[in-house]
Design goal:
SH3 type barrels; globular; seven-stranded mixed sheet; 7 strands; alpha+beta
C-alpha cells in the first residue's frame, strides 16, 4: 500500500479532491477534537464546511477545517487536509487545480 502524506503535491490527492466524496469510506486523522481521531465511517452528505458521516449506524457532523481525512482508493491511502476542500461539492471540480 502506498501512503501519500498531506502536503505532498500528487495527482491522486488532487483527483480525489475533485471527485465525488459522498459514499466514500473515510477515517478522520489528526483532528483538533481528539474524540474524532481514528473514527471511520462513510460520508453520506457534504456541504461547503462539513461532512455528514455515518459511524456505527449514527449520523455525525464534522467540520472539514478541523481534521485531515484519510481515504482508501485502489489500495492506496490518501490523506487530504479538510481546509483544502472547503468548497461546495459542486465547486471543488473547478477550484482545485
Amino acid at each position: 500500500m502506498l501512503f501519500h502524506p498531506l502536503g505532498e503535491d500528487n495527482m491522486n490527492e488532487k483527483k480525489l479532491a475533485r471527485d465525488e466524496l459522498i459514499g466514500q469510506k473515510v477515517t478522520i486523522k489528526d483532528c483538533s477534537d481528539p474524540e474524532w481521531n481514528n473514527t471511520t465511517g462513510v460520508i453520506i452528505d457534504e456541504t461547503k464546511n462539513m461532512f455528514l458521516i455515518e459511524v456505527d449506524e449514527k449520523r455525525k457532523k464534522i467540520a472539514k477545517k478541523i481534521a485531515k481525512f484519510q481515504f482508501e482508493v485502489d489500495d492506496e491511502k490518501i490523506i487530504i487536509d479538510g481546509s483544502k476542500i472547503l468548497y461546495r461539492p459542486e465547486d471543488r471540480i473547478k477550484k482545485i487545480r
